[in-house]
Automatic annotation (TrEMBL):
Cited InterPro entries: Bact_Polyamine_Transport, MetI-like, MetI-like_sf
Full protein name: Putrescine transport system permease protein
A GO-annotated cellular component: plasma membrane
Residues in the signal sequence: none
Residues covered by the ABC transmembrane type-1 domain: 61-256
Domain of life: Bacteria
Source organism per UniProt: Halopseudomonas salegens
Topology in the lipid bilayer: Multi-pass membrane protein
PROSITE patterns (UniProt xref): ABC_TM1
Length: 273
């Protein structure tokens, strides 16, 4: 038993090291004074200061953050409603088809999804003249399409665990369904909604394939900019901007974790209650 525990623990630490050591190396070389990424030339903040002059890269960062924020917000709204329908409405015509369509992006290759959306946007532009050109709007629609599925899965798993007696009691006391959903259900599933928002934000910020299909001139996202730059060799500016994003995401995730933890402590029944 002890040997099995040691083996599992060793595999866990090896897996964590495989994930995080490259990130640590990337952050370390972001302070490299040398233009050669793999050659250490001394400690310097030159590349962080140079980001302010790299307007193309900073515009890509700003554009990606905007798209990720809008995508996460829309995906949470649509995914939460879809999860509520799948878990609370047991029987309706087309329920199996609806559930399959909601969760289909989870198993659909992004290349197929991106090509399908590209053909859709081209056909719509020819038929109704919208969208006139592909850009941030089409990327937002594409990202929302596949992020909604992840939010729906996360929220539906939480909805299935809830005790519906509280919701039923609220409706028995005269609360309409929409008020019960907003004042009773939503606060109880708030941690899963927040988790879904963070997941959708990360997926949108990280996406390269879909954005490559549905983007247009002047709508380059950060992954696209990094990918096009890396093909010619990794630049120190890439390490610097990636380190800053890693720092911001880590701090934001820590703050969210602290908020969720404090909320769970407040909702946890105290001894003697």
């Amino acid at each position: 038993m002890k040997e099995r525990y040691l083996f599992s623990t060793s595999l866990l630490w090896i897996g964590l090291a495989f994930i995080y050591i490259p990130m640590i190396i990337m952050v370390f070389y972001s302070f490299n004074a040398s233009r050669l990424v793999t050659v250490w030339g001394g400690f310097s903040l030159h590349w962080y200061a140079g980001l302010l002059d790299n307007t193309q890269l900073m515009n890509a960062v700003k554009r990606s953050l905007q798209i990720a924020f809008y995508t996460a917000t829309a995906a949470v709204a649509l995914g939460t409603l879809a999860a509520f329908v799948m878990t609370r409405i047991r029987r309706f015509r087309g329920r199996t088809l609806f559930s399959g369509m909601v969760t289909a992006p989870l198993v659909m290759p992004e290349v197929i999804t991106g090509l399908s959306l590209l053909l859709l946007f081209v056909a719509m532009a020819q038929l109704i003249g919208w969208p006139e050109q592909r850009g941030m709007l089409t990327i937002w629609i594409a990202h929302t399409t596949f992020s909604t599925a992840y939010v729906a899965v996360v929220v539906s798993s939480r909805l299935r665990e809830l005790d519906q007696s509280v919701e039923e009691a609220a409706m028995d006391l005269g609360a309409p369904p929409w008020k019960t959903f907003l004042l009773i259900t939503v606060p109880m599933i708030a941690p899963s909604i927040l988790a879904g928002w963070l997941l959708a934000f990360t997926l949108s910020l990280d996406d390269l394939v879909l954005a490559s299909f549905v983007s247009g001139p002047g709508a380059t996202t950060l992954p696209m900019e990094v990918f096009s730059s890396v093909r010619l060799g990794v630049k120190p500016e890439i390490n610097a901007v990636a380190s800053l994003i890693l720092l911001v995401v880590s701090v934001f995730t820590l703050l969210v974790w602290l908020v969720v933890r404090s909320a769970e402590k407040r909702n946890r029944p105290q001894p003697g209650e």
